[in-house]
Write a structure and sequence with these properties.
This protein has 165 residues and is an alpha+beta fold. Helix content is 16%, strand content 38%. The protein contains 2 helices and 9 strands, in the order E-E-E-E-H-E-E-E-E-E-H. Strand 3 and strand 4 form a beta hairpin.
């Protein structure tokens, strides 16, 4: 199995790249990990709100799309999280110095780019699961000039220079 650097799979960069690594993957699933540290984005008072794991799940879905793009010599494209269904979580927060393991499995993706993924995450005693509705635009052009880079600088321009974490 080919190993991938997570930075090469997602259009995110800087602090907005929340996934630390791809652990394993197959044709329609991927497992990623995130190490929660005191300086991690969205950590407050030594804890991460468990709702943030939804974004970890979305970025894990994006990592699977990134692997598919890399394996087909296509550029990495931005996708969108449209919604969450059937969300269940055993705890409302996750302590620092914990690793979150995220597993996503594609249930279906339509030709128009709309898809649904079954997602599970564990972090010590914390267990989360849900379905994510996503949109990944069908490829319309094949050059890297269309790639989108979501980074910390752009986030600060939109929302001011607030400190996170």
């Amino acid at each position: 199995m080919t190993e991938y650097d997570i930075k090469d799979l997602l259009p995110h960069s800087g602090q907005m790249l929340l996934i630390d690594r791809v652990v394993d993957w197959g044709d329609d699933w991927l497992v990623a990990e995130v190490d929660i540290q005191a300086d991690s984005l969205f950590v407050e008072g030594g804890y991460l709100d468990a709702l943030v794991v939804i974004e970890y799940m979305a970025q894990t879905v994006a990592a699977l799309a990134g692997i598919r793009a890399k394996n087909s010599d296509r550029p990495i494209q931005i996708g969108m999280l449209l919604g969450t269904r059937k969300y269940a979580c055993s705890h409302d927060r996750i302590a620092i110095n914990t690793t979150v393991k995220v597993h996503v499995k594609e249930l279906f993706v339509e030709e128009n780019g709309l898809g649904v993924f079954s997602c599970e995450a564990t972090a010590g005693e914390v267990h989360l699961n849900c379905q994510l509705n996503v949109y990944h635009p069908p490829e319309t052009q094949s050059n890297n000039d269309d790639a989108v880079d979501i980074n910390e600088h752009e986030l600060e321009q939109e929302h001011g220079d607030n400190e996170h974490g």
